[in-house]
Amino acid sequence: MAGSEFVQLFKTEIGATVYMVLISSVISYLIGLPLGILLSATDDEGICPLPGLNRLLGLVTNLLRSVPFLIMIVIALPLTRLTVGTTLGAKAVIPPLVISAAPYVARMAESSFKEVDRGVIEAAKSMGASNLQIILKVLIPESRPSLLVGAAISVTTILGYSAMAGNLGGGGLGAIAINYGYYRREPLIMWGAVILLMILVQLIQELGLLLARRSDKRIRNIK
Amino acid sequence: MSKEFIPENLAADFSEEEPIVELRHIKKEFKTPEGRVTALYDIDLKIRRGEIFGIIGLSGAGKSTLVRCINLLETPTEGTVLFEGRELTGIPEKEKRIARQSMGMIFQQFNLLWQRNVIKNILFPLEIKKIPKKEALKQAEKLLELVGLSDKARAYPAQLSGGQKQRVAIARAIASEPKVLLCDEATSALDPDTTKSILELLKRINRELGITVIIITHEMKVIESICDRVAVIDNSRIAESGSVSEIFSNPKSDIGRRLILGDRLTDRAVYDNMIKNFFGGEN
Q: Which residue stretches of chain A have pLDDT < 50?
């Protein structure tokens, strides 16, 4: 294969990886964030304790998180076919990725919400805030730095999952590493893909931490 | 003719004036893994409109639970809470929230929103109350001026001292124009000088805005310096209550004596004075 073809290949597959990770992350957050809010709100120490619902949600979250991602791809095949119409390529990775990542995101968000000072929540209650107002005006803004750190961790985890999906026809950088590096014995290509993944992880992680630091007003002498 | 009766009528009106907050037979139990714990037992309390009322007790006596029963952050196990003659216990959650807007609260740890600057902290209760933005901002700026922090509007709580944080918390607590301000150990995390200035601010708010102030504390000095009446709470019960001068000159309960006399004996100034007097002004 000529060099330019490789460049083209990498370009396409980086695109596929970014596409998978981006879409999956957004959907995972759309599901995981509300789920995390529910988990922390219905906790015994939460703003609206509902032990039954909390245990049920916790159980579902844990069950989904216990399925290994490669197995999840297989289990989710019927759903994948139903929702995206194919079981191959980057698109097909999104449904199993979301099913695996959303509960992970939920737990990350839950732990961020639990870090919010209980006194501040009590103060909001004393001012007559409703639970919805507490969630929107206290829990989410006050835990924003922690949520951003969590997002960096979640998105890099999703990136890792997406690379794993390369093994089962998922496309993306993981697919290059497996197909060229392992099956076709071209270690250089494999390393190229791995290094690109490493750079992506670094970028996402650092960006997340930077945003978290920038947005955190708890630090003295900010300006 | 009838004019002659006015003073009498006024007097009668005053003594029978409806208390702004009334607690009747309040009992609060908590369930713990070790069984039920009674935090409050048969509490009866009438707080008059416009006064500064102190509730003093040692830590663990039930003071904080008591103040949280007033705005129903804690639901009493038994008994009734009346606010302006209206029963609050047992009303729907939504109405409780509206009632809470008439009762501001400040805390030992200030409990400001860390991610909001000072002016936005003060705007918070107005957002909750859905006051139009422009009007709310005007109100918040006025309050910031009242507490003497106009230059700190854009600062974040992390950049403020303890006393400044409590001033912001006070401005926030009275932003929704409450009739009562509940203070839960509001000066306990502050040094003596700052405590003094915060107490002066509370007194001003009481006098100028006519807000009834209810103060929970374990410090006799706080009661002494600004309260009109006081209730001494011990072991989940009210040991005694009355005007501050009454209780201070003649504490009837053991705990009252301990709190007042004990405090006097350890008070550095009094101690120094005693020494001075003893040695006849030498030294």
A: 223
Domain extents for chain B? 20-102+179-274, 113-177
Model pLDDT for residues B26-49, shown as the tens digit of each residue: 999 998 888 898 999 999 999 999
What integer pLDDT is reported at residue B4 of this predicted model? 44
Compute the CA torsion angle B45, B50, B51, B56 (nearest 10 deg).
60
A89-128 residues touching B, CB cutoff 8 A: 117, 119-120, 122-128
Residue B14 has pLDDT above 70, yes or no: no
3-state secondary structure of B43: strand
pTM, whole model, 2 decimals? 0.86
**B105, B39 Cβ separation under 8 angstroms:** no
Which positions 142-201 of B are in contact with A (Cβ < 8 Å)?
Answer: 156-159, 169, 172-173, 176, 182
- Residue A130: list chain B partners with CB under 8 A: 94, 97
B147 exposed, middle or buried (CB, 10 Å; 0-12, 13-18, 19+)? buried
Helical ranges in B92-191 per DSSP H: 93-100, 118-128, 133-146, 162-173
Phi then psi dihedrals of residue B236, to 5 deg: 70, 0
Strand order in the sheet with B52-56: B103-107, B180-184, B212-217, B52-56, B229-234, B237-243
A4 token code pair: 């330019």
- Which residues in chain A have their CB less than 8 angstroms from residue B124's CB? 124, 127, 137
Contact B115 A141 (CB under 8 A): yes
Report yes or no: A141 at the B interface, CB cutoff 8 Å.
yes
Inter-chain residue contact B100 with A128, CB threshold 8 Å = yes
Domains (range + CATH), chain A: 3-215 (1.10.3720.10)
Q: What is the pLDDT of residue B6?
A: 44
Q: Do A141 and B101 touch (CB under 8 A)?
A: no
Q: Which residues of B touch A131 (CB under 8 A)?
A: none
Cα dihedral across residues A182, A185, A189, A194: positive or negative: positive
Q: Rounded mean pLDDT of B9-26?
A: 73
DSSP letter assigned to residue B3: G
State whether CATH 3.40.50.300 applies to domain B20-102+179-274: yes
* Main-chain phi, psi angles of A185, to 5 degrees: 50, 55
Given a contact cutoff of 8 angstroms between Cβ atoms, the answer to whether A146 and A209 are in contact is: no
- The helix/strand/coil state of B216 is strand
